Amino acid sequence: MAADMLTQAIQELKDHKIRVTPQRQIILTYLVTHHNHPSVETIYQALDTQLPNLSLATVYNTLKLFVDLGIVIELQNGDAGTHYDFFGRPHYHVVCENCGKITDVFEPDLSGVEAKAAELSGYLVTSHNMEVYGLCPDCQKKLGVTRTAELRRLNLSHVD
Amino acid sequence: MAADMLTQAIQELKDHKIRVTPQRQIILTYLVTHHNHPSVETIYQALDTQLPNLSLATVYNTLKLFVDLGIVIELQNGDAGTHYDFFGRPHYHVVCENCGKITDVFEPDLSGVEAKAAELSGYLVTSHNMEVYGLCPDCQKKLGVTRTAELRRLNLSHVD
DNA sequence: TTCTAAATTGGAATCCTTCTAAAAAGTGTG
DNA sequence: CACACTTTTTAGAAGGATTCCAATTTAGAA
After folding, report:
1. B3 in the same domain as B82
2. Has keyword Repressor (chains A, B) (predicted)?
3. Is the dihedral of CA A80, A81, A86, A92 positive or negative?
4. Which residues of chain A are within 8 Å of residue B77 when distances are taken between CB atoms?
């Protein structure tokens, strides 16, 4: 549950001797309880009432910290700006190339990939990230595409 | 071979009724023959002698076009700026978290992922991208990390 | 060759992100 | 509890990547 993940993540900060400030707790709580893949701006605005003096720089700093710790991951969806996602459980993302929507898919089973990559590249592998692209159900309807029509179209022109 | 991939990619432009301009041909040729995952700036400077009046905007426009067509893919390596890679053969990338180096790994075998993601998300899936992170062999030496030492370190503090 | 839509150019403008210096707030010690 | 020290936050400036724009040029078709 959410509370567990929060305390676990806060413990992670303590383990690394990183100060647990109100800003960090509140940003972390936001991320644990919202799975909308927020941008920096979204987080900043959402927390305006809780932390009226919160600085954008702090949001940036905090997110970078969380990403370095592996608590949070970064994603791009074609919009300007980076989006963030609490990474409590391994999952990957499917991104809509039309509207930018990001959907979680919990079905990793990519465990072998890291070992294989390490073997082939000589890298000391620490993590991986997988992104799948396509059209979300809503956009399929909006654009009136059927699976076959879409496949035909993709073969002839590019998406604007 | 490279020449084949170039003509094939140019044919792709024609099929989509996209004009084959000198700028596009030259940028495409650069990408087909260089596998250094160049940034926009790298491409711009490399082509300065061939196309003295080339505009940065054209490089941006052209790369976006190629990405939309699926000829080229975008990657980030932690540096500022986006890097590009001709996608003649399916492969994925291993990125060094210390120096930003990007290494190709040709061993997809992720074919099932798209179908699975489509099934679980309802998206009409068109492509996917996989990135693996770690420390490249050079940085392992430079930093004097052994596999076990590194794993221990990763458990205790974050990378700066 | 001529015509038209598409592409390119170069510079301004925009927007995301980082930097900086000063103030504020944790943490440990005596 | 006060002190000293370090980390963190803040606000705004600065930086840098990318996009936008109007004017010019060009590719490709008729």
Report:
1. yes
2. yes
3. positive
4. none
